[in-house]
Design a protein that fits this description.
mainly alpha, two-stranded antiparallel sheet, globular, homodimer, 15 helices, Farnesyl Diphosphate Synthase
Amino acid sequence: MVLTSISNALPEFSSFYHDRIQAELKEIIDGNPSALYNMLRYHMGWQDEHGRPYRKKSGKFMRPTLCLLSCQAVEGNVLQILPAAAALELIHNWSLIHDDIEDAGYERHHRPTVWKLWGQSQAINAGDAMFTLAYLGLLKLKDNGIADKKIAHSIQMLTEAVLQLCEGQYLDITYESRRNVTIEDYLDMIAKKTAALMATSTSLGAYLGSEDGKLIDSFYLFGKELGIAYQIRDDILGIWGTEDNTGKSANDISQKKKTLPVVYGLQNSNHEEGERLLKLYSQQSIQGEHITEVLSILDRLGARDYAQDLVRQHCRQALAQLGTTGLDPSRQAPLREITHFLLERGY
Amino acid sequence: MVLTSISNALPEFSSFYHDRIQAELKEIIDGNPSALYNMLRYHMGWQDEHGRPYRKKSGKFMRPTLCLLSCQAVEGNVLQILPAAAALELIHNWSLIHDDIEDAGYERHHRPTVWKLWGQSQAINAGDAMFTLAYLGLLKLKDNGIADKKIAHSIQMLTEAVLQLCEGQYLDITYESRRNVTIEDYLDMIAKKTAALMATSTSLGAYLGSEDGKLIDSFYLFGKELGIAYQIRDDILGIWGTEDNTGKSANDISQKKKTLPVVYGLQNSNHEEGERLLKLYSQQSIQGEHITEVLSILDRLGARDYAQDLVRQHCRQALAQLGTTGLDPSRQAPLREITHFLLERGY
């Protein structure tokens, strides 16, 4: 497998999709006059907290881009299914707004989080509104000539993904206070919390663009493997990435997140190191030289290499799933390229 | 209009619906093996916090009951649309779980709230799962032979109601810190926060049971007026009801809720009383003789009678809307009876 160099931008071709996804999202969110939606516009990076226009590097739109690329790969009509792509991004952003409250995260993309500015109550409610708009997005498929049967089934696919996301989030919160989280437990959690929505992004794109059931299953598994790889890469960046790249105010060690490298560390350390790690992770937060100490234990155990190997492995499995579609290689190319990007991405 | 005496139970006939709604809800929630759903079962009153069976007076199932009665009134098949009725109850309970966090409510029906037992993070996520299951409920209509077109439109109706609910909740939180909330502002807020879902309960029942568009509009307006009356009656009980009836640990005065009687009081008091009320409502919480003082100001201004007059007025408008359906009086009778119950209910 040829590896591209570390990159901070999605492949060139995805900007075509990016602008259209953004326009569709704006149409869905701006259709509502209530001031409630200002919080949503702020979160999306379109305005500042006073409602003034704001220009920032907008989100990657990973999920909707994967949805559209999958639709295109099966020769579907990409422009027709834009509202479904937007719905995936809205679901992702609902989960971010609520996650930021649940994790007490102060910043996202170098800006205060919604709850930090408007308080927890308004932020819970703003997240709920974002969630609801996702369903409105899927219902908009009707205006684009998609049949009711396909709309109902798309809603079923999204709803099942969201339930998995909630189940994964439940596990994630539970693991925070558990000593004995295994790598298997961890992979089960991210399969639900992250990979289910990615799998639904690719399979929904393929479903709306084609009628072939077997093809849709392959796209689901492609997205699922990609999602697992994506999350583990995120875990690596959460520990070894720079703040400038990740846009987060504190890294996963200071926040005591038991992400894959830490779970690996706890499972593979000798008794003394293991007890030390647990002690460090039982503090209110991990600061200063204790961060250095955790890093040194993880490095000694090869946790980073282990994690990146897993990323590589799941990317390979993703590509294998894509191969089973039997689609013309030129049709698979953009999805292969995006897989390579995710493997080595620096943010 | 004949008034029934104060009552703590829905009319007799509704127990037929109650058991079936409960069974449908259990089927939707129990279909999922994750331990996440234990929090939902606890909230619904089916088990205690350790997962042991629990018997309590279960919820009134007001919204699903209205949905089924409306379906029956238009000669629809009540058993066929049970999953839609359950979906309305799930949406209502999502809003309760999140409201309890947003209002920092410690108890509901004499039991600790979900966030009080499992923490805010798990409770936000449990609410999100409850929300998602509502959509799964609507999708279950397919198993009962409802056409995709009707399912998609039902989802549209519910989604629009939920957006209004979020907008109403946004206003409600905003009003907490605003001095000058008018009765008009307040009625606008409850129309969104409470009445939209009641209106959707009645209109969804009528929609799934019939094809007549004009009929559905009348049912929407019937439910909306009923919802406004229901909320104002709730406001009265929140101040003058006993804890035993309402199941809440503290009344709306101590929690400084600016419900209709208080908004009326602020708007109709002389300068001195108005300033005194505002001062009392600017405290951290209102306790002891300050509660008595608020009650005495509200009583002197006739706030309770004003509020109950409004309840009566909206109930009358609800019945007028029901009258415009032109349905046989015997078909309207259960809905009329439930309207009378809501007018004077003691819990």
